[in-house]
Design a protein that fits this description.
The structure is a single chain. By secondary structure, this protein is α/β, with parallel strands linked by helices. The chain is 38% helix and 24% strand. It has eight helices and six strands, in the order βαβββαβααβαααα.
């Protein structure tokens, strides 16, 4: 059985690093894994998506619309762009955090109101987490992505993988302790 994970965010949020950690964890535990990443002007605050497919044998990294088992949105409006990728009984995890695009700043567009309420009314299995606040509370907002990783691992019950080891092998040495803490706090979050 193949599982599909879609991570969506804004450039600079650590979406790709998180995907690499997830993929490495799956590979080290015997899964066939395919990952694709899309950088939409990511250095300028544009959308970044990564698609991860894992299972016994995976032939393509591409997640088709309506087939994502889980979507992790690193920014709350990014999920709106990709909601049609979520399967009917899929899980949506949203970081209750907003990054207003440049076009909002110059008055060309408006940031949508009541976004979280829209998700509640359109998705049966939706979960919210303020990963940015959690990351700030433990010392650095840059580990927001690892807080979300912890939440993902718990949601998908992926406890048979040594995530702390993989995080330790992937992040810079000086950041290992903080990233492990971020993972643990994300895992324990409700």
């Amino acid at each position: 059985m193949i599982k599909n994970i879609l991570l969506v965010g804004v450039g600079g949020q650590g979406t790709i690093l998180t995907s690499k950690i997830i993929s490495k964890g799956f590979v080290e535990n015997g899964y066939d894994v395919k990952m694709a990443e899309i950088h939409g002007m990511s250095q300028r605050g544009g959308t970044v998506t990564t698609q991860i497919r894992y299972g016994e044998k995976v032939y393509s990294p591409v997640i088709e619309k309506g087939t994502a088992d889980i979507i992790i949105a690193f920014e709350k409006t990014e999920a709106l762009r990709f909601l049609d990728y979520l399967k009917k009984d899929g899980i949506l995890v949203i970081n209750d955090y907003e990054i207003k695009p440049f076009t909002v700043g110059i008055g060309m567009s408006e940031y949508p109101d009541n976004v979280l309420e829209k998700y509640k009314s359109s998705v049966d299995n939706v979960h919210f987490i303020n990963a940015n606040k959690i990351a700030n509370d433990i010392g650095n907002s840059k580990v927001m992505n690892i807080v979300l990783l912890g939440k993902l691992v718990k949601m998908l019950q992926l406890d048979d993988i040594d995530w702390k080891k993989i995080i330790s092998e992937t992040v810079p040495k000086k950041a290992i302790e903080l990233n492990i803490k971020a993972f643990e706090v994300g895992y324990e979050s409700n």
